[in-house]
């Protein structure tokens, strides 16, 4: 029978099927961080369980960490406490731990791929919904809650019903100034934030085939924002090239054995999906959001839609625009902005910094903009320096911060103040996501850069 | 963490007719700094309940003494966003045992089931009926009958059935969780793990 990529990976990880219930699903790799793991370790202890496979779990500190002066003690006692708990729990159970200041430290979904923890055909979970990022390698990867973190620690399994399958195709070629982030925000604007709930998505078509691994990660990362459990892309030469010789990638014979498996990881030609959608690359322009969920996005040159033109939910729509301080019919271009954030597991990789630099090169940061440029990891930070990007952005008046989640969820000090408007390369524009009362416009690194040098929402194509 | 069994719940309900209520509203990120599961009920819907100076926002439904009960009735796409189980903890710790909506985000629904909050998905029409009934009479009682998988507006007797898979249902009825199940499978798991290519 013809099967999909998703079926192949899923089915090969099912240990037991429960009738009218979930599958007992084996997890190859488990990523943990300081925020969603402490209570799981407490649970483990209170039940007298042990960590079954400590070497299948990897710990990094990211959600809560400061992005300046990481060499100093963390000031916020609650954050410090969570970091300490992660360190102690990892030490107690023999889990590899890359804490604050460690040269491999960074955002969990950036360090996983960088170090070969993320592999094609693997199952990967983490107590963070953007675990979907790892699907870029042809892995099944998704976010889990703390109870499930405890399950994986104690049994290396979780219990999951198998999601339905959706394929999203985009054919053609993305235009100049149109990035993977725009492709993803475009899809979400078409599907809404619940359009893929209950599904696992496979991305296919020229656009994804031609994308870099970084771009694929950005797209898969945002799968969760359309409600999908996760998203994946079939591994190809680019994937194998990327993972080869990384720290935890299998080597020698083990590589050859793994390769035999990896080469089988594609959707059969006549395989059928529960739902299939096809878009054309020509219809995608640089995107920006105007509301309080990632589905409220539009091409940057469009106006904010009128509530009457949308299906249902008028009151919720108006409440959202009211929070943003926008009106139906407003143009987005030219709106004055206060903050620009480049970073997060969506757009905190080297390619994103290259894109940002390509626009700010030879220009200056606008005076009204406070900019936070936060690499996804120390490895990204080192690349930024090696490639001369640091010089370019410094000359343009920007400062590079130290790695972490930062203003993506504003658990540390990087909070956008109430009422201020931020153009952000992260993944969520919920009310208060970037600090209580903050207002967020999600966009690509190019839009962020163009806005950072002009001080207002700007179409990057005018500066390229 | 163990939770109380869920069989039949009869209660008044709190209406929250807003769509796409995301986990950042249910529990804002700055309250995720605990290393223990404590105090989450106090911060449920923190920024909708309180002003930045911690004074109460009187117009928010949780601050309106007319509405109370163990059932929260939310709009479509309830719980979208983050995987934080803290959102489900806040709901439980505040005192809700059941959330009713016409559509739930996946991870939130799973988290609820894992910690003892019953997510009950009803049709958009029935959701509307519930809102109207509560609006007409805030003392309206709902009955959520897990063994029979029904939700009933007690005054009018109008009801609807809801879905839950049998495995999760048994867990809720007995107060068990998945870890109890998985730890009994240890040998089978280790055998499987030993055959993985990586
Ligand atoms: S950058 Fe944001 S989305 Fe990514 S792991 Fe950190 S908090 Fe989660």
Features:
heterodimer; A: 464 residues; alpha/beta; five-stranded parallel β-sheet; 18 strands; 31% helix; B: 198 residues; Aconitase, domain 4; seven-stranded mixed β-sheet; 8 helices; binds iron/sulfur cluster
Please summarize what this structure is:
The complex is a heterodimer of chains A (464) and B (198). By secondary structure, chain A is an alpha/beta fold.
Would you mind describing this structure in some detail?
The complex is a heterodimer of chains A (464) and B (198). With 464 residues, chain A is an alpha/beta fold. Chain A has helices at residues 5-11, 38-46, 77-93, 108-114, 146-155, 180-191, 206-209, 213-221, 237-243, 253-262, 314-324, 344-347, 350-360, 378-386, 389-395, 445-454; strands at residues 14-17, 23-26, 29-32, 57-60, 97-98, 123-126, 140-143, 157-160, 164-171, 199-204, 230-232, 275-280, 287-289, 297-299, 339-342, 370-373, 421-424, 439-442. In chain A, the strands form five sheets. Chain A has a five-stranded parallel sheet, sandwiched between helices. In chain A, strand 13 (287-289) and strand 14 (297-299) form a beta hairpin. In chain A, helix 2 (38-46) packs across helix 5 (146-155), helix 6 runs parallel beside helix 8 (213-221) and helix 13 runs parallel beside helix 16. Chain A is globular. Chain B has 198 residues and is an alpha/beta fold. Chain B has one domain: Aconitase, domain 4, CATH 3.20.19. Chain B is globular. The model of chain B has no long low-confidence stretch (mean pLDDT 95). The structure holds iron/sulfur cluster.
Q: Please list the strands of the largest sheet of chain B in the order they lie side by side.
A: 4-3-2-1-5-6-7
- Which blocks of ≥5 consecutive residues of chain A have pLDDT under 50? none
Q: What structural class results from the helix and strand content of chain A? A: alpha/beta
* Model regions low in confidence, pLDDT < 50 over at least 5 residues of chain B: none
Shape of chain B: globular
Number of E-type strands of chain A? 18
Largest interface: A-B, 78 and 58 residues
Instruction: Return Rg of chain B in Å.
Output: 18 Å
The name of the CATH topology of chain B is Aconitase, domain 4
Distance between the termini of chain B: 32 Å
Named at the architecture level, the CATH assignment of chain B is Alpha-Beta Barrel
The pLDDT mean of chain B sits at 95
Helix content, binned percent of chain B: 25-40%
The CATH C-level class name of chain B: Alpha Beta
Element string of chain B (H = helix, E = strand): EHHEHEHEHEEEHHH
Based on secondary structure, the structural category of chain B is alpha/beta
């Amino acid at each position: 029978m013809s099967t999909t990529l998703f079926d192949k990976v899923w089915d090969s990880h099912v240990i037991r099927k429960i009738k009218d219930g979930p599958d007992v699903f084996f997890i190859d790799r488990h990523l943990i961080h300081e925020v969603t793991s402490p209570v799981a370790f407490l649970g483990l202890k209170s039940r007298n369980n042990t960590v079954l496979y400590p070497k299948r779990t990897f710990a990094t500190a990211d959600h809560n960490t400061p992005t300046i002066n990481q060499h100093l003690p963390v000031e916020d006692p609650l954050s410090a406490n969570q970091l300490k708990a992660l360190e102690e729990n990892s030490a107690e159970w023999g889990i590899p731990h890359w804490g604050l200041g460690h040269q491999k430290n960074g955002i969990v979904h950036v360090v996983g791929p960088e170090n070969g923890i993320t592999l094609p055909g693997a199952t990967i979970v983490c107590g963070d919904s953007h675990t979907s990022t790892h699907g870029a390698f042809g892995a099944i990867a998704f976010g889990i809650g703390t109870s499930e973190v405890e399950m994986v620690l104690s049994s290396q399994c979780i219990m999951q019903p198998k999601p339905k399958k959706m394929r999203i195709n985009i054919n053609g070629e993305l235009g100049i100034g149109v990035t993977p982030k725009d492709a993803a925000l475009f899809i979400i604007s078409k599907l809404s934030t619940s359009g893929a709930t209950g599904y696992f998505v496979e991305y296919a078509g020229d656009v994804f085939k031609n994308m870099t691994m970084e771009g694929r990660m950005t797209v898969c990362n945002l799968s969760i924002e359309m409600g999908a459990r996760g998203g994946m892309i079939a591994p190809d030469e680019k994937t194998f090239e990327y993972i080869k010789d990384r720290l935890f990638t299998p080597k020698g014979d083990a590589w050859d054995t793994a390769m035999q498996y990896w080469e089988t990881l594609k959707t059969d030609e006549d395989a059928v999906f529960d739902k299939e959608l096809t878009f054309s690359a020509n219809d995608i322009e640089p995107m920006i959001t105007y509301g309080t969920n990632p589905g409220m996005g539009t091409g940057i040159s469009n106006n904010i839609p009128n509530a009457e033109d949308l299906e249902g939910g008028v009151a919720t729509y108006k409440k959202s625009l009211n929070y943003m301080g926008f009106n139906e019919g407003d143009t987005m271009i030219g709106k004055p902005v206060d903050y620009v954030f480049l970073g997060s597991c969506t757009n905190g990789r080297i390619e994103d910094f290259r894109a940002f630099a390509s626009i700010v090169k030879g220009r200056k940061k606008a005076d009204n903009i406070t900019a936070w440029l936060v690499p996804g990891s120390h490895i990204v930070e080192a690349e930024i320096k090696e490639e001369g990007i640091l010089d370019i952005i410094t000359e343009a008046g920007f400062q590079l911060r130290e790695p972490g989640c930062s203003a993506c969820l504003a658990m540390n000090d990087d909070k956008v103040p109430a009422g201020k408007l931020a153009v952000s390369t992260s993944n969520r524009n919920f009310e208060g996501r970037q600090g209580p009362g903050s207002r967020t416009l999600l966009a690509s690194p190019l839009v962020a850069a163009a806005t950072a040098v002009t001080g207002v929402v700007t179409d990057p194509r005018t500066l390229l | 963490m163990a939770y109380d069994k869920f069989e039949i719940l009869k209660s008044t309900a709190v209406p929250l007719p807003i769509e796409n209520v995301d986990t950042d509203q249910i529990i804002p990120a700055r309250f995720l700094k605990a290393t223990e599961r404590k105090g989450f009920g106090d911060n449920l819907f923190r920024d909708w309940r309180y002003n930045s100076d911690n004074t109460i926002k009187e117009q928010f439904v949780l601050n309106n003494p007319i509405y109370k009960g163990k059932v929260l009735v939310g709009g479509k796409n309830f719980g979208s966003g983050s995987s934080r189980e803290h959102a489900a903890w806040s709901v439980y710790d505040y005192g809700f045992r059941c959330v009713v909506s016409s559509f739930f985000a996946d991870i939130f629904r799973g988290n609820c089931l894992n910690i003892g909050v019953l997510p009950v998905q009803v049709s958009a029409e029935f959701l509307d009926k519930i809102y109207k009934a509560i609006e007409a009479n805030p003392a309206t009682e709902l009955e959520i009958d897990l063994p029979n998988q029904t939700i009933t507006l007690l005054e009018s007797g109008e009801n609807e059935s809801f879905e839950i898979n049998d495995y999760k249902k048994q867990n809720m009825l007995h107060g068990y969780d998945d870890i109890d199940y998985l730890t009994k499978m240890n040998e089978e798991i280790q055998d499987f793990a030993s055959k993985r290519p990586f």
